[in-house]
Amino acid sequence: MLTELIALPGGTFQMGSTAFYPEESPVHPVTVAPFAIERHPVTNAQYARFVEETGYVTVAERPLDPAAYPGVAAADLVPGALVFRPTAGPVDLRNWRQWWDWAPGASWRAPFGSGSSVDDRPDHPVVQVSYVDAAAYAQWAGRRLPTEAEWEYAARGGAATTYPWGEDASPGGELMTNTWQGRFPYRNDGARGWVGTSPVGTFPANGFGLADMIGNVWEWTATRYSARHRKAEAQGCCPAGSEPDPQVNQTLKGGSHLCAPEYCHRYRPSARSSQSQDSATTHIGFRCVA
């Protein structure tokens, strides 16, 4: 079953921020037309149904092209994806390679590599899906991926505050979303008991009734990434089912369970990040609009 769509009226809002990272600026008025957005990110169970009905093979499950990796032994050109691995202790946070690892066999079915599974997590957001994998699902569902502006408008939930719920990340000590709890990247105490992704809807919805717009998993948008906001959004180039372009970065929104105050304080509507179209990781998912 597809996720319920929540109809939004559209309108003009102030997009961006000058209070955190430079790529979020400038603050500028944006008008979005009425649209509808899925109540929560696409889940493992929903993606499994799509694959079952279409036979779709995700980017992480496809063999690597030898021409793209000159000098690499054929035995090493096996399908796989990036997996987060906590470090043994404190590390230099400027070097993300210390906690990301290439895992052969990692895919949406086995997010952490061979031997892992999502069988016991049907209601968690699907991860290890690239931009084109998300777009393929959206096309099958008769929907599309949101633009960055649509996504940010929806995430704000009608509010103009730093977080959809106000100015305090944890009002009254209440945890409002699934982010890293502890010391990144070596100690995670869990968000309401969840280390990693959590079932969709575990945390409070925003003012529009949308779950997990902030935290849990980053979400793909149809907007190409630029270092600062442009006057007009550049939309994604690739139709569903095409090969991803590793030289093109798409805009991600929302932050994830790996975001912490001391690293990646991007669990806010205005925050943004970039990822190449072929990337599949344990902290990126998506939702659709119509």
TrEMBL record:
Q: Which residues form the Sulfatase-modifying factor enzyme-like domain?
A: 2-289
**Which InterPro entries does the UniProt record give?**
CTDL_fold (IPR016187), Sulfatase_Mod_Factor_Kinase (IPR051043), SUMF_dom (IPR005532), SUMF_sf (IPR042095)
GO MF annotation terms: formylglycine-generating oxidase activity
* Protein name, UniProt field: Sulfatase-modifying factor 1
